[in-house]
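Field reference: sequence -> structure
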Amino acid sequence: RLGRDDEALSVCNSALEIRKRLRSPEQLGYSYNVRAIIFVDQLRETEARSNFQMAAEEFRKAGSRRGQGLLNIAYGRALRQLGRHIERNAQGEFDPNRQEYREAGRMLQEAVAVFRQLEDAANLSEALNEHGTLLRQQQQWDEAIVCFTESRELAEKINNFYRVVDNLVDIAITYDYKDKDSEKALAYAAEARAMSLDEKSGLQAYNLYAKAQEVIANILFKQGLYDDERTFKAIADACIYLWRLDPQKLGESPAKRELYYNQMVNWAGDKIVQLPSQALVDEKTAYLIRRWEKEEQGQEKLADKYPGFIIRMRDLARDYQFLKMNPVEG
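Structure field:
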């Protein structure tokens, strides 16, 4: 949960050696599955696939349906993320039938079936959420919302408030994509934002708060509400709260955090370039820089840890006129 993958991998390797001596296929499967999840977080695709395959073989030997279901969630999530990465960062074209999506869909459907039969509400809720996210990436909006809604209902029954908020955010994103239904998207995002830092439940879902604010910022920006104080507050919150560690969420590796950081800097930068005037650009970049400079995490300032955000904002303010006159094609 702290994002210390090297230490986690070392502990997992020690457990794996013990389980090899105990000759327990199911326990070996769990070790290989956790190793695969760590490798995914470190963006080590080859090692992740190998360990997922070894986990599948051990669960098959043990006849462990629960183990196979957990494997299918983790492996399906990894393949979904890989397909998304290819589309976003490797200049791949959108293809709802991409091989990674087809494999992920099969695995996640199997996971849903397993945990439904086992009456395992917690894992069924997770499997449905993952399947919904995949369906959204394939632009099957209505089917995705059905999955998110059932996942949310299950999470409410078992008081898993983090999963409830996660689904609210996902529903908000889907409505925004689906048919530009901004009112529904805003309503779900606002509910998620309110619940994500709720004192009564004790929830500190900083990353989900950031995602909810990202949805709200996108919608307000598309409505042209550049001077509405909610718009750039939401943009700043989305960038800043991404870096706070959620107690209920697994921490990311440095490699994955760097990937998310670059995505958020580019997202905020795109908003700046789309502003209609230099005066607004100067005002809003100055605001984002002030927010970034004020943020402290533990004993460290965010501006000291990630000074590139401030540099990027200053560069955009300086180069705004040129960037507006020479937009990037495509």
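Note: The radius of gyration is 21 Å.
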